Amino acid sequence: MRIGLIAFSAFSLITCGAAFAAGLAANQPTTSCVTVNFTGEVVETPCLVSVGNANSVDLGQIKKVAGKKGRITPVPFYLTGCKGDVNAVCVTWDGATTGTLEGGKLTTNIKNVSMSFYKDSHATSGSEVKAREVIDLHIDATTKGTDGVNRNCLSIPLYARLETDDTKEPESVGTVSSSVIFKVQFK
């Protein structure tokens, strides 16, 4: 973009300079030229992104029994402080910061308990979201958060749930946790 702008500006100056010189030599009225400056802005991201409550999503409780599936929970993405038009975002979960990826499931701090991601609220077979799979989120509405700040609510084709191993019960009881990195691209 910058090279095209420089070339355009240089061409304009040469053309205007030649027209001005020709007008003087022929003793005719001169041609008027104008320099146009183009501006824009580079921003880190057009919006601030938050997920759930303080970037935490509560997946509820699951019993210490083999083969249990927890409740399906939407992963709510919110945008605030948007500058310019943002019609949709796409997110990609890129891996875990505390767990590991095993068979498309994310391990947690409790052995034999994992977290799975789905594209629908029924967690049907084939709706599992794999790591690095792009998920498009579209702006549904704008609401005022509990902090009084307007937020864009995104439609959520992303759901998560806790699951225990099919053959082994969890090694312990307690708070389950795992952190995931999401990459967010604005459209």
Number of DSSP-assigned strands: 11
**In angstroms, what is the radius of gyration?**
27 Å
Largest sheet: 6 strands, antiparallel
How large is the share of residues in beta strands?
25-35%
Low-confidence stretches: 1-14
Oligomer: single chain
Task: Report the end-to-end length measured between terminal Cα atoms.
Answer: 20 Å
Number of helical runs?
1
**Helix-strand topology string:** HEEEEEEEEEEE
Provide the helix percentage.
10-25%
Q: Give the neighbour order of strands across the main sheet.
A: 1-3-9-8-4-11
User: Which overall shape is indicated by the principal axes computed on the Cα atoms?
Assistant: elongated
Structural class comes to alpha+beta
Mean pLDDT: 77
What can you tell me about this protein's structure?
The protein has 187 residues and is an alpha+beta fold. It is 13% helix and 32% strand. The strands form two sheets. A six-stranded antiparallel β-sheet has the order 1-3-9-8-4-11, with no helix packed on it. Strands 2-10-7-6-5 form a five-stranded antiparallel β-sheet, with no helix packed on it. It is elongated.
